[in-house]
Amino acid sequence: MTESTIHIENGWALYAHPLFIARLEEITVAVERAMANDPEGFHHHPVYKLFDAVSANILINVPSDPAHTCYRQGNTLGRDFKHWFRVKKQGIPPRYRLFFQFRSEAPKTIIYAWLNDEKTLRKDGDKNDVYAVFTAMLLNGKMPNSYTDLIAACGVLEYGSSTTGTEEE
Predict the structure, then answer these.
(1) 5-159 CATH fold
(2) Which of 24, 67, 88, 142 has the smallest CB count inside 10 Å?
(3) HSE (CB half, 13 Å, CA atoms) of 169?
(4) Confidence at 115, pLDDT banded by 50, 70, 90
(5) How many Cα atoms occupy the beta-carbon half-sphere of 126 within 13 Å?
């Protein structure tokens, strides 16, 4: 990783995988388009609601307690992937999932890995189900499974300007 400013929320350093960053950029562009098309009512658009919910989760909800039981998956991804956590509900539309890992040893770190899109919504048993797609990404190496490999593939989360503190890496 290169030297950069680390985004800190509630004592947690926030990192993001390139797939999550790309998805966040897609959503941001869609929100900007909605704002341009409807400056008065864009905040009612579904993409803005998704953006708002993802923002609240990555900057507030998850950093307040990434180990909370609501983020645990059980065996949904299989026994080898129990160290992965996901956000569901928490303001995010029902068929979306935001996957992350964290480590509470110093330095406390949260890594946001992937947020599904409209083509990979939750549909149990479907080959494009969000969990099936994410499991395939882990199995084929598109998403690093180990914390060490994952952090090496990630960058600092550069998002918003409401940090509660920054540190130099």
Answers:
(1) YaeB-like fold (3.30.2310)
(2) 67
(3) 16
(4) very high
(5) 10
